[in-house]
Amino acid sequence: LSITFYRELNGSDFLAKVENWHRTCAWCHTYKRVPDGIDNKGKKRTKRIMFTGAPSPKDIFSVVYGEKASDKLKKATFERLLPCIVDGSRLPYDFVTSAINRTTRPYSMESWEWEKSLTITCALINKFRHDKFKEEWKMALDEEQKDRSYLFGRLLAIAEQIENYALYTNGEKRTTNAERLMHQFKIHPYKTWGILNDKLRPYISRLGAKGNQLVELMTEVNTMLDFEDFTSRKQLDDSFLLGYYCQRQIFVDEKNKRIAEKNQKKLQVAEEK
To answer: What is the Cα–Cα distance from 251 to 100, expressed in whole angstroms?
Structure first.
């Protein structure tokens, strides 16, 4: 056996560094499962819960390199992560870029795996930008944020919602163009947005008045971008995923609220009967 990581710290310093990690690398996640009783067959049930906090080193590794990466790489990753937690060292940016590259290819993962990848990647982006640029990014949508990449991320989420809504009303279920072109969108935002806009037209026509609110929101966000920023060939910064997540989460919350209200009405009808 050998000691691969050794530090001498005051207890208070150690706790402060660990607390700082959990505070600055935090995001809202939904991948954690907890016990939820026993089912009819006597098997233990679990349920998914929402929590706000820093992802574990193990979960960070799975998002950065994938579940099938070697044990040797896992060991090396943990050795690079520990100083970030215990010493307050800056998070290696190659972790962030690798996580972004995997997350911007949602079609390559199961839905639950991609949701986990998205929130953990946002946590890593948040952590890196906090430490390097002293920036504070909100987990909720910031409608006053004028950052170019953040606004393009919002546009991508709106485009995805328009297509999803059109597919739902027509009884279809498949990967949207926004999801398929996400990685390309990060590299060539202006060019890819033109492609997405063309592909959205038949869905907007199909929705008619039902899609007016989403189209108005898309126009509103679009006008927040300066012409030079909008037409620039420069690729998007990592903050585009923060804008995408925050705008998308608005739609997710609205959907969950509608489902909860529908279930509540069903329950009330059942009780009345």
So the answer is: 22
H/E run at residue 35: strand 27-38
* Cβ count near 243 (within 10 Å): 26
User: For residues 22 and 88, what is the distance between their CA atoms, to the nearest angstrom?
Assistant: 11
Residue 1 pLDDT exceeds 70: no
CA torsion angle 55 58 59 64 (round to 10): 110
The CA–CA distances, whole Å, from 88 to 80, 128, 135, 244 equal 12, 11, 16, 28
DSSP string, 61-108: HHHHH-TTS-HHHHHHHHHHHHHHHHT-PPPPHHHHHHHHHHHT-GGG
3-state SS assignment for residue 54:
coil
- Per-residue pLDDT reduced to its tens digit, 142-189: 999 999 999 999 999 999 999 999 999 888 889 999 999 999 999 999
The predicted model scores a pTM of 0.91
CB–CB of 153/137 below 8 Å? no
